[in-house]
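Researcher: Sequence recovery benchmark, item below. Answer with residues only.
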């Protein structure tokens, strides 16, 4: 990594790094095209999808830099962060917060990609540096404050603090009245309901924890499609013959079409086309069929503004848990994929997790991890949860058994790349 930093600082005209994991498939991790760097946090756009990512240095690095946040080492780290943001820019918007003095360094400026949302921290760069950053296409933002003091701002960063989402929305209203049309970005929201409230108020991008406020007891039954998929998952869990599963899938036209489309997709990579549901079930096998059904269960549980973002985050979470389990040599690591995926099901259904899982025949390990955060798989979910949080000490401690922070963040980068590929495929026209 230090050699890479050196090359960045010696070559201020280096081209932006291409995106990592842009061509991920459902069965294999996409090759990384650049070293994974920084912590990636999703931002939901008004479409309800993940439309941007905030890239941050890991807290451990920020702590090590300490008072040297404007020195050469910090410049190398933030140059690498901006290079990673350049990769994100090819598919999604990227947001980076960089100490203002570093934005006066040519080696850092050279890594700024066109369109990146860039927030100088602790002041503003010089007028010459601002001109150079804008010439590279950066969109420069300001933190919340008096609108009349930020005439050149191209976006505003609002942060939920002690006042919670209500105070943030008041700030958003003030900016909207003073500067109509100026994009607003909200960070630090406590749950997905607050994210949706922010988007409904006109926020362009909203990010924070993808957990939930208190969810009341269910007031309506599961939708018919979700019930059907739960039954198919239970057939697999009970080790019933795949012909039973195939017959059940054939009874649902939409599900049959999606299964055939998936079996014939580049992600599977078959040399010959699959024309029947029975052949698709046979070719995929029980493990891959169970994975596909789990993804379909998320798709059936839609109906809220941020459903698409929740589904992609659940895919990334499931893939991360699977990759962590594989790195540990865990047998049947795909079971951890299902655990990660189902840990978001209650948010999509808007019912308590226990109620959401009730129709499914899960293993004891999975049920204990999901409902009690106990058992051998609990540490996987704890780590996935803390990826969204701000407790860097706890995050670092949870990463240790999995190879450390750098290893976990690299796997998380791959997981997001894979999830993006699956999401793009799922977004293609269907019946």
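Model:
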């Amino acid at each position: 990594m230090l050699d890479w930093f050196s090359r960045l600082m010696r070559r201020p005209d280096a081209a932006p790094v291409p995106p990592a994991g842009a061509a991920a498939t459902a069965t294999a991790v996409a090759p990384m095209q650049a070293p994974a760097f920084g912590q990636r946090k999703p931002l939901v756009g008004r479409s309800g999808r993940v439309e941007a990512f905030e890239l941050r240095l890991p807290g451990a690095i920020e702590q090590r830099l300490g008072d040297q946040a404007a020195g050469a080492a910090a410049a190398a780290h933030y140059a690498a962060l901006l290079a990673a943001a350049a990769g994100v820019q090819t598919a999604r918007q990227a947001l980076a917060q960089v100490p203002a003095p570093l934005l006066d360094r040519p080696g850092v400026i050279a890594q700024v990609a066109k369109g990146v949302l860039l927030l100088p921290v602790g002041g503003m760069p010089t007028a010459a540096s601002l001109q150079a950053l804008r010439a590279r296409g950066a969109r420069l933002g300001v933190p919340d404050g008096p609108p009349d003091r930020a005439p050149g701002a191209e976006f505003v960063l609002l942060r939920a603090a002690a006042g919670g989402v209500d105070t943030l929305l008041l700030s958003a209203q003030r900016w909207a009245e003073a500067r109509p049309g100026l994009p607003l970005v909200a960070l630090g929201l406590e749950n997905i309901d607050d994210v949706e409230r922010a988007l409904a108020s006109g926020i362009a991008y909203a990010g924070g924890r993808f957990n939930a406020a208190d969810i009341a007891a269910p007031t309506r039954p599961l939708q018919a499609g979700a019930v059907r998929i739960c039954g198919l998952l239970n057939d697999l869990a009970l080790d019933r013959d795949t012909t039973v599963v195939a017959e059940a899938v054939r009874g649902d036209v939409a599900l049959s079409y999606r299964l055939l489309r998936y079996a014939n997709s580049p992600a599977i990579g078959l040399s010959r086309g699959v024309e029947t549901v029975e052949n698709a079930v046979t070719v995929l096998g029980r493990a891959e069929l169970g994975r596909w059904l789990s993804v379909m269960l998320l798709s059936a549980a839609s109906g809220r503004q941020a459903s698409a973002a929740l589904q992609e985050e659940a895919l990334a979470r499931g893939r991360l848990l699977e990759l962590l389990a594989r790195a540990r040599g865990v047998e049947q690591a795909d079971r951890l994929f299902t655990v990660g995926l189902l840990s978001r099901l209650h948010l999509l259904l808007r019912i308590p997790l226990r109620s959401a899982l009730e129709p499914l025949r899960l293993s004891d390990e999975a049920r204990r991890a999901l409902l009690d955060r106990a058992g051998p798989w609990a540490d996987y979910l704890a780590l996935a949860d803390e990826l969204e949080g701000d407790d860097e000490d706890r995050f670092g401690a949870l990463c240790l058994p999995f190879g450390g922070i750098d290893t976990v963040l690299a796997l998380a980068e791959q997981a997001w790349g894979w999830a993006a590929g699956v999401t793009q495929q799922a977004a293609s026209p269907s019946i």
